[in-house]
């Protein structure tokens, strides 16, 4: 029976890895309870090329921007998540810039927001999570696009 249980666990873990790959997730954690004192805890994770490629794309932008003049934006563009006004994603999910299709976006570049205003929505597991502005200020950059996926901790918006 132990061998049969082991084979089922291996098949379960392989299915989780496939689910991770098919849905372009970076991490998945599941607890499977068999009996009161018997359970299986599985955490499957992988590094994504999105996470690796993002700094390369951002680093390339300052080289082009440096030709016109300003070295100051290059330091801000190196890693947007380190910007003091960066609002980061609290979860993995899909970005929605408006409440429903056809309605205006919650924010745009240059918009003035107050603390608590909805900046965008992150959908995770069919739940719409409104992301509030942590402080009042002006939206200077929007780092994500409507319908794109986002990782935990990824910069979404910069408020100055």
Automatic annotation (TrEMBL):
Q: What is the organism field in this record?
A: Planktotalea frisia
Q: Which Pfam families match?
A: Biotin_lipoyl
Q: Which NCBIfam families match?
A: BCCP
Q: Could you tell me which pathway this protein works in?
A: Lipid metabolism; fatty acid biosynthesis
Provide a Gene Ontology MF annotation, just one.
acetyl-CoA carboxylase activity
Q: Which residues form the Lipoyl-binding domain?
A: 84-160
Protein name as it appears in the record: Biotin carboxyl carrier protein of acetyl-CoA carboxylase
Which BP terms from GO are recorded? fatty acid biosynthetic process
Q: What do the Gene Ontology cellular component annotations say? A: acetyl-CoA carboxylase complex
Q: Which UniProt keywords apply?
A: Biotin, Fatty acid biosynthesis, Fatty acid metabolism, Lipid biosynthesis, Lipid metabolism
Record function comment:
This protein is a component of the acetyl coenzyme A carboxylase complex; first, biotin carboxylase catalyzes the carboxylation of the carrier protein and then the transcarboxylase transfers the carboxyl group to form malonyl-CoA.
The record ties this protein, via PROSITE patterns, to: BIOTIN, BIOTINYL_LIPOYL
Question: What does UniProt give as the signal peptide span?
Answer: none
Indicate whether Repressor appears among the record's keywords.
no
């Amino acid at each position: 029976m132990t061998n049969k249980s082991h084979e089922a666990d291996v098949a379960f873990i392989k299915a989780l890895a496939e689910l991770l790959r098919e849905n372009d997730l970076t991490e998945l954690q599941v607890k499977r309870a068999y009996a009161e004192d018997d359970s299986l805890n599985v955490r499957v994770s992988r590094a994504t090329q999105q996470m690796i490629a993002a700094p390369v794309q951002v680093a390339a932008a300052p080289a082009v921007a440096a030709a016109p003049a300003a070295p100051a934006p290059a330091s801000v563009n190196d890693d947007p998540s380190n910007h003091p006004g960066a609002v980061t994603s609290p979860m993995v999910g899909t970005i929605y810039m408006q409440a429903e299709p056809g309605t205006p976006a919650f924010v745009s570049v240059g918009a003035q927001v107050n603390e608590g205003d909805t900046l965008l929505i992150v959908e995770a597991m069919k739940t719409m999570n409104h992301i509030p502005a942590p402080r009042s200020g002006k939206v200077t950059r929007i780092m994500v696009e409507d319908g794109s996926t986002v990782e935990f901790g990824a910069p979404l918006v910069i408020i100055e």
